[in-house]
Amino acid sequence: MMRFVFFFIVLYVLTAYPKLIASWDESPIRFYNPPTPSPAPSPEPNPDDESSLSCADDLHGVGSLDTTCKLVADLNLTGDHYISGKGNLDVLPGVRLVCNVPGCSLTVNISGNFSLAENSTVIAGSFRLAAENADFAVGSAVDTTGLGGEPPSGASGTPEGVDGAGGGYGGRGACCLSDTTAKLPGDVWGGDVYGWSYLEKPEVYGSRGGSTSNEVDYGGGGGGMVGMEVLGRVGLNGSVLADGDSGGVKGGGGSGGSIFVMAHKMEGNGRISASGGDGYAGGGGGRVSVHIYSRQSQPKIFIHGGSSFGCQENAGASGTLYDVVSESLTIDNENKTTFTDTLLLEFPYHRLFTNLYIQNMAKVAVPLRWSRVQVQGSISLSNGGELNFGLARYASSEFELFAEEVLMSNSVIKVFGALRMTVKVFLMLKSRMFIDGGGVTMLGTSMLDISNLLVLKESSVIQSNGNLGVHGQGLLHLRGAGDTIEAQRLILSLFYSIKVGAGAVLRGPLQNTSTGGLTPKLYCQREDCPVELLHPPEDCNVNASLPFTLQICRVEDITVEGLIKGSVIHFHLARTVVVRSSGTITGDGMGCKGGVGTGRFLRSGIGSGGGHGGKGGSGCYNHTCIEGGDSYGNADLPCELGSGSGDEESSDSVAGGGIIVIGSLEHPLSSLSLEGTITTDGESPRKTLKTISNTSLGPGGGSGGTVLLFLRSLDIAKPAILSSIGGNGSLKGGGGGSGGRIHFHWSDIPTGDVYHHIANVKGRVYVRGGLGASEDNVGEAGTLTGKACPEGLYGLYCEECPVGTYKNVTGSDKALCSLCPARDLPHRAVYITVRGGVAEAPCPYQCVSDRYHMPHCYTTLEELIYTFGGPWLFGILLVVLLLLLALVFSVARMKFISGEEVHGATTTHHGSQIDHSFPFLESLNEVMETSRVEESQGHMHRIYFLGPNTFSEPWHLSHTPPDEIKEIVYEAAFNGFVDEINAIAAYQWWEGAIYIMLSVLVYPLAWSWQQSRRRLKFQKLRDFVRSEYDHSCLRSCRSRALYEGLKVAATPDLMLAHLDFFLGGDEKRNDLPPPVHERFPMPLVFGGDGSYMAYYSLQSDDILTSLLSQLVPPTTWYRFVAGLNAQLRLVQQGKLRSTFRSVMRWIETHGNPALKRNGVRVDLARFQTSPSSSCQYGILVQTIVDEVASPRDVNETEQQHPWGVQIDNSSLHFTQSPTSSINHFRHRDGGEIIDIGSLQFLKEEKDVLSLLSFLIHNTKPVGHQDLVGLVISVLLLGDLTLMLLTLLQLYSISVLDVFLALFILPLSILFPFPAGVSALFSHGPRRSAGRTRVYALWNITSLVNVVVAFVCGYIHYHGSSAGKKIPYLQPWNISMDENEWWIFPGALFLCKVLQSQLVNWHVANLEIQDYSLYSDDSELFWQS
For this UniProt entry, which segments traverse the membrane (predicted)? Predict the structure, then answer.
């Protein structure tokens, strides 16, 4: 007994700090490669023993023990024997050495090798071996089972009584309880443990089991003792046994014995066993110690307790396995369930264990008071292993556990008392740790110090019914569902990060526990706030005097995906808290059942709701009501628990909400991110109560608690909930609890330029009261407050004051944000949000668009306008400037063209005076091909080219020669000549493609391109006919030799060309050329196409004039052509039916009356070779003599009309020789005189300019040439100015609008000005008129750009809400407001329309200088 007490004292005194490691290693044994141990000295013979046995005489062997002794026969021994020698000892196969006497000792001490061959056996109570090497073959055995001698004196391994308990040694023997009402299975045991001091080298016997009878000892014997000390190798393929013997069903099993194996190397897969024996109650396991430096393979080692037949669930306790090299202790019960402990007594102080393994249902206890369990490495509990500290009925001790790691897998640690655990790594998998403080306040605090890592996984639990502090410096991770840390008061501190996984729980206090000395006392009756809530201590120690029930202190990052629940929850000295969507921090129903604002009850049992942030709802029954609980606390800094329904003694009363404090005044939380819920709601009644008189009771709901947040930033996601809601009252009339209090105490609110939003709240925040049976029973809402905001900020979350307001005082009310003075805001400006809010007036603003410039929000154009005094003054200055520039422009123009003679006349070849300044009087010989008068005498015939010389229908000739030239040409050669001409006149495809693209993009350039290609084609035709062609188609040798028989010419517009044939002079025929009267009727085709750029005109060259001069005087003919061209000039393409009427009328009233005096008449005619070819117009010249001379023919071939005659193309009989006329028309493939009847059938062909003929067309001259030029100059300069102002206005909108206005159509808006200047400064009317027409094209084309500019302005100003109208607008102070955006593009459009009309007059003044050409009086016309 004294020795047992001594063990307790030593175990308490011997302590040391552990050195921990950071990995989970469940390998049973760990080696550290210590130096090779020196072998123990050979066993000394007992002085009482006899001398050593001889090989031959005593052992009946062969050989000598000094060389080799081979045992060849069985040997039965009856006592202790000592075998020694310097040689080898071999036990041959099948040989048995037997000493079947308990405690019988067999000692072998040899210098050589020992071998136990196959199926050989050594049986004794004790076997000791000292040899160089040892080999135990397969099937061999050293068996000391049940042959143990007497245990050491003072040991209590053999049980007393007749309970049939098992013997104890390394582990306690089991004891089967027959009466479980008074005691629990864990409270009783059989034989006790002993031999703890022999753990490293066990040398004692096991104990015998108890019996169930006083008369007969049925108990099984204890295991023997085996000790082997081998210098070299041990080959273990057999068995080494020291098991306890079985006690059967009437006796307890014996405990296992002792086995010690020491060698340098061990090989083999044998068996080492010191297990307890089976019996009515199983015996405890023995003790095994191995001192092996190198293991090539791992033998199976068993130390489990024996099975219990009387109580199968309670086997004997496991023994111990100690590895001397790794200094590891293993306790393994081989998966045998037990309630019996293996005791850990006094831990060594001079040399600590490295590892402690408790596995396979082993149950280990540290029974000594104030004990310490300390190892250098890890403590591993696995597969049902259990480690208990203290005694369940005497939980009054403190225990210490020191290790590098504590690794638990499906295991349990129980502490009865208090625990101080210091480890680096604590990993739990499907495991439990229970700390039972026993209700002792003094010892009710346990501390778990895990410096690196604490992980709970798969429903692992740490639970304490007292105070629990968990400290660390690394990570605390509760992985998932069921993982729980809970205590009556729980403190988690010093971790770098805490993560509560989905389904995991942190709880303090415990749920559904009875009150006791360790239950936290809530401050329910205090109206003032505990100072520790606002100014908590910074040491983070567990202190029962503090109001917290769950505190997380000095943790950097906290992530909550599971549940954190407590009465008073506090997060202190944390950096960030993140509550995921599955996470909850709650104090629901964890407040007071009574409290300052407790509810009240009617005599009927109906109660009112608890009050807190507001007044509780009234409780009503049969029109009798009682007031709810009173409101209490400070809304600006709340820290009160919610109040309950009252009647605290009743188990059915409800409690108010708890309190959650995050941060503190000195140490606010950096960031709170809420995606889940934070709630401190009041509790609602669970059911209706029944009193003894069967009257229904209905308590009210508890009030909401408090959520106090000391924060720097807050983020509440959309699905998140932050609430402190009152509980609902009972349906019998109970009142609802009032809402609680939520307060945001912002810390270091940034202001000014460093401001950022401190809160992003999208979720729901509730402080409403609980519901009652009716609206009269609803509890009042609680309070939702925030810290007073600095200047410029307002509201609960200190947001910036609304745009257009400022705040220069401290406070949170929105009414403190005053409106900014409207007089300081420009009309195109809007107030802007300033970072940190506006703290003083005037309020900052910005222009509504980037196109406006601060500070007055003017556009670039308006800045220019207001630079010159405003719109009125700017407009006046602009008009004056334009007039001055126009005058300078006109003077410069007049001086530039002063040397040009405007009215000049030249003498024609016939002596007539003709004004060559008139383009319509130009003849073809002035274009590119001149003719002498003498050439008309040899002129045979003129062939007009077919087609208008366009890219789609170029010039071409028919291959069939006219009858008029068949006698002077070779038809085959003529066809070849036509092929060459047509090939030259044809255009390439790319020329037409370019024309089409330019027509779409820039029509004036398309016209210029077409004219340049026409000019090039005509030049090629002229060069070909003049010099390249050999005239081989002509019959005349002289013509072929001199290249003089063919001449090609064209009109100035290059749309009509003809080919003249001349005689060579060597034909020697008097009938050639034919006289002029044989050439009638003579068709003369108009040049041009009736468009603005190429109006119809009749070209009269010298050859034609010479021919007609035989009938008509040249002056008459020229005057007729001039008048006709003046009328044709007014003909418009697309309006031929109306405009040709005036031409026909003029011919009948002015032309034909004068020509009839010379026997000639002209008619307007249409010529078309085929229905698919283009139609050409001209006149038909015929003699009146033919009409009078052949009345019969006229009746047959003519139909008289008021203004003309219809010609039958198949029979033209107007001359004495009609063949010429018929062939001529057939050459043109048909011709038709146009009269009133056929006029309406003319085909109207329109082009782009035809659609704009109301703007751009040929008109009659108006005179006042200089004035028109001056006005055009003014408009041209105005056009330039308005164009620049319009572009500047568009630039104020966007660069894209400028780009669109410039390039739709490309740059057309820029070219009118240079084109107009070029036209005005051109020499001569003819050139000036041509360039003026090009200027007119550019001007009309630029209208598209103006329309684009207008559309851009309209889209911008009417498509946005930027425009504002100025109130009280004064007429003398016009502002360029958005409502007047159309002025510049509209003025530019109007300017271009005016220019187009003035240009029409200017062109007419240039081209028509003889105004009598348009005289209605024919006599005045012919007299001019």
Answer: 864-889, 1267-1292, 1298-1322, 1334-1357
Shared domain for 206 and 322, answered yes or no, is: yes
The verdict on 607 and 681 lying in the same domain is yes
Distance of CA 111 to the CA centre of its chain: 81
Task: State the total domains in the chain.
Answer: 4
**What's the order of all strands across the beta sheet hosting 1231-1233?**
1082-1085, 1176-1183, 1160-1167, 1231-1233
How far apart CA 1242 and CA 647 sit, in angstroms, is: 114
Domain assignment present for 75? no
Rounded distance between C-alpha atoms, residue 427 and residue 406, angstroms: 6
Longest dimension (CA), the chain: 187
**Is there a single domain that holds both residue 478 and residue 598?**
no
Q: 58: left (phi > 0), else alpha (psi -120 to 50), else beta? A: alpha
The alpha carbon dihedral of 445, 446, 450, 455 has a sign of negative
Task: Report the distance separating Cα 780 and Cα 724, nearest Å.
Answer: 12
Identify the residue whose tokens are 């917290």: 548
Instruction: Please give the residue range of the domain that contains residue 633.
Output: 587-787
Structure tokens at 1412: 């009598």
- Would you say residue 551 has pLDDT above 90? yes
| 1121-1177 confidence digits (pLDDT tens) | 999 999 999 998 888 888 899 999 999 999 999 999 888 999 999 988 777 777 889
The residue from 497, 517, 541 where one domain ends is 497
Residues 625 and 761 in one domain: yes
User: Are residues 297 and 403 part of one domain?
Assistant: yes
Residue 832 resides in a domain: no
Q: Are residues 205 and 317 in the same domain?
A: yes
With b for 16 or more beta-carbon neighbours within 10 A and e for fewer, the 860-893 pattern comes to ebbeebbeeebbeebeeebeeebeebbeebbeeb
pTM above 0.85, yes or no: no
One domain for residues 886 and 965: no
Per-residue pLDDT of 385-423, as tens digits, reads 999 998 877 777 888 899 999 999 999 999 988 899 999
Shared domain for 367 and 254, answered yes or no, is yes
Domain end (from 444, 468, 497): 497
pLDDT score for 350: 55
Yes or no: say if 797 and 786 are a contact pair by the CB < 8 Å rule.
yes
**Do the domain assignments include residue 380?**
yes
Judged by average pLDDT, the poorest of 346-355, 820-829, 934-943, 1044-1053 is: 346-355
Exposed/middle/buried for residue 440 (C-beta within 10 Å: 0-12, 13-18, 19+): middle
Q: Rounded to the nearest 5 degrees, what angle is found at the Cα of 80, between the Cα atoms of 76 and 83?
A: 85
Token look-up 């939520």 returns 742
| pLDDT at position 351 over 70 | no
Nearest C-alpha neighbor of 999 from the set 1296, 1308, 1300: 1308
C-alpha distances in angstroms, 432 versus 72, 358, 972? Answer: 58, 14, 122
Indicate the SS3 state at residue 864. Answer: helix
Distances (CA, A) of 304 to 258, 650, 653, 1422: 13, 52, 53, 150
Q: Helix, strand, or coil here: 1262?
A: coil
- Tell me whether residue 493 is exposed, middle or buried, using C-beta atoms within 10 angstroms of its C-beta: 0 to 12, 13 to 18, 19 or more: buried
3-state secondary structure of 936: helix
CA distance 326 to 1134: 116
Task: Sort strands 689-690 and 696-697 into parallel, antiparallel or unpaired.
Answer: antiparallel
Is the Cβ–Cβ distance between 265 and 296 less than 8 Å?
A: yes
Among candidate residues 1259, 1116, 1251, the one with its CA nearest the CA of residue 1181: 1116
Cβ-Cβ contacts under 8 Å for 437 (sequence gap 6 or more): 395, 417, 418, 443, 444, 445, 446, 464, 465, 466, 467, 518
Structure tokens at 1060: 């003249």
1200 domain residue, yes or no: no
